[in-house]
Amino acid sequence: MAKVACVALLCLALGFAQEVDDNSLINDLEHIKALNEYNKNSTWTAGFNRFFDGQTFNDARVYLGTELLHIADYEGEIHEDHHYSAVQDVPTSFDARTQWPGLIYPIRDQQRCGSCWAFSAAEVLSDRLAIKTGKSTSPLSPEDMVSCDKGDMGCKGGQLPHAWSYLVNTGIVSDKCLPYTAGTGSAPACPNKCSDGESWSSSKVKAASKYAINGVAAMQKEIMTNGPIQVAFTVYKSFMSYKSGVYQKHPYEFLPEGGHAVKIVGWGTEANTDYWLVANSWNTNWGLDGFFKIKRGTNACGIEKMGPPYAGMPAMPAKTVVV
Question: What is the CA radius of gyration of the chain?
Answer without folding.
Answer: 20
